Amino acid sequence: MKRFPTLFVLFLLTIGLHAQNIKKLRDCDLLFHVTPYSNPITEATSKNGLPIDHVGIFYRLNGEPVVIEATYRGVVITPLEKWMKHPERIYIGRIRDKIDKQQSIANALSYVGKSYDYLFQEGDDEIYCTELIQLSFVDKLNNPIFEKVPMSFHDASGHVMPYWEDYYSRRSMTVPEGKPGTNPSEMAHRTNIKLFKWTSK
């Protein structure tokens, strides 16, 4: 009997593990993306050396695994397989608090079609990734699960980064440093989230 090439066997094992992990995902799990490259967002927000730059909401829509997310395309529904091109860069955030899953998903879906918020501002009609999470997730009394925190646009020394000064200056705005908001790295490390790596689940 011929042996399968080692790489092919490893490929089959990887596919099998990937499928098992998808089955274990629960609606309302948060999927955090860790970038392999530093960027202005991770430089201003990364905690514990984990450069998280994006997050989406896992959901089974009509039985199909998808991610509800706010990206440059706006708030969209993305098939999980398309979203998860690099599983080794994914962390799962499972919320410890008792949430109203049905209402939270309904809230998230209600924002589909909204434009992306490139200015990371609160109270407008555009939405960025963690703003979608913050606005959508509620408990059984309709209270938000995630409170807002002061926005961070500064480096490790505490100074606002030149990139962000230029970014907002070109839009005739001041950097909203310290204004209420959210960011993916800070959210991933909140006490009401259990964070674990995709490939270790």
How would you portray this structure in words?
The model is unreliable at 7-17 (pLDDT under 50). It is built from seven helices and eight strands, in the order H-E-H-E-E-E-H-E-H-H-E-H-E-H-E. The chain has helices spanning 6-24, 40-45, 80-83, 101-110, 129-136, 162-169, 184-188; strands at 30-34, 52-61, 64-71, 74-79, 90-95, 149-150, 180-181, 193-197. Helix 4 (101-110) crosses helix 5 (129-136). It has a six-stranded antiparallel beta sheet. The chain has 201 residues and is α+β, with helices and mostly antiparallel strands.
Largest sheet: spatial strand order: 4-3-2-1-5-8
The N- to C-terminal Cα distance equals 34 Å
Number of helices: 7
- Assign a percent range to the helix content: 25-40%
Largest sheet: 6 strands, antiparallel
Radius of gyration: 18 Å
Question: Which shape, going by the Cα principal axes?
Answer: globular
Low-confidence parts: 7-17
What is the typical, i.e. mean, pLDDT?
87
The proportion of strand residues reads: 15-25%
One letter per element, helices H and strands E, the order comes to HEHEEEHEHHEHEHE
Number of strands: 8
Structural class: alpha+beta
Give me some keywords for this one.
201 residues, alpha+beta, 6-stranded antiparallel β-sheet
Short description:
By secondary structure, the chain is α+β, with helices and mostly antiparallel strands. Helix content is 30%, strand content 22%.
Secondary structure blueprint with pairings:
Elements: H1 6-24, E1 30-34, H2 40-45, E2 52-61, E3 64-71, E4 74-79, H3 80-83, E5 90-95, H4 101-110, H5 129-136, E6 149-150, H6 162-169, E7 180-181, H7 184-188, E8 193-197
Antiparallel strand pairs: 1-2, 1-5, 2-3, 3-4, 5-8, 6-7
Helix pairs in contact: 4-5
